[in-house]
Amino acid sequence: MTIPILLSALAMTLIVGVRYLIASGGFDLATRLRCPGLYHGMGRQIRMEIGWSLASAAVYGVPAGIVAWGWQNRGWTLIYTDVHAYPLWYLPLSVLLYLLAHDTWFYWTHRLMHRPRWFRIAHAVHHASRPPTAWAAMSFHWVEALTGAIVIPALVFAVPIHAAALGVVLTVMTVMGVTNHMGWEIFPRWLVHGPAGRWLITASHHQRHHDRYRCNYGLYFRFWDRLCGTDAGLGGFAR
Ligand SMILES: [Zn+2]
Ligand SMILES: [Zn+2]
Fold first, then answer.
1. More confident residue, 235 or 47
2. 94 inside domain
3. Which of the chain's ends, N or C, has fewer CB atoms near its CB within 10 Å?
4. How many angstroms separate the alpha carbon of residue 84 from the centre of ligand 1?
5. Ligand 2 centroid from CA 74, angstroms
6. pLDDT tens-digit profile of 28-55?
7. 71 CA distance to ligand 1 centroid (A)?
8. Does 234 fall in a domain?
9. Is residue 232, in this structure, part of any structural domain at all?
């Protein structure tokens, strides 16, 4: 029994690692086309970001692999594959619930990570990206990666979700993780600076977190930042 669990953990680590390389590599290419020279002279930092991110892939991959094994072999989790097991309107709702729960967890653990002790131990790694690049998406110390790695594996035991909806959640997670660190805004002005942008987080919001540190802690939504008075608005891209 131990071998299949280990293999599942290894497979998931590979999937997370390759997913990271493809997503960050793709947006790195987009950056080179859209903003030539933006990452000029940042080779050393990028190599460090890739190193920490690949280590994080293992931290994310192991719990996910164990839970995936239990889902397939022991009937663990509330992940379902029959699309009619719940009403169809529940599909988008479940995606929203996962994103809201992940966002809430991230906001509060991220604030904790900015307390001096935790910052020194773990979060300084993520902020060593100055400014971040598309490769910084998973550039976390393993202690911090651990706090992120347990969210989705825990949620699948608590909130039912269709396997495809879970795929949507993971895609949003991957794309936003990369684009928020890319150093330029990929989303249209009408969205970022319009009514929806008052509640959604894109690169313009997270860039300011990397510039000023003690503000804009959220992941997907500005709800917690606005409620707790830590929202410092949208930043610019100085380079
Ligand atoms: Zn960041
Ligand atoms: Zn931070």
1. 47
2. yes
3. N
4. 38
5. 38
6. 999 999 999 999 999 999 999 999 999 9
7. 31
8. no
9. no
